[in-house]
Amino acid sequence: MGDDKEVMSVVLLSGRFKMSVVLLSGRFKMSVSLLSGKKIAADKRLFSKEINEIIRRGHKKNYTYFM
Question: How does pLDDT run across 2-22, given as a tens digit for each residue?
Fold first, then answer.
């Protein structure tokens, strides 16, 4: 997908998992790849109200994003 833009990628040195978040024009995607080779993924279509709220509020460390 050419429009994919990775906005955050975190790799834990403990070797347990790698996590990446991809934002596609209005779609929030999150995936976790475990060392065992299994991949867990979720995605959610963000509506204008949600996008504007995230932009206005910014990312909060202890905020939960419901999928």
Answer: 455 555 555 555 544 555 555
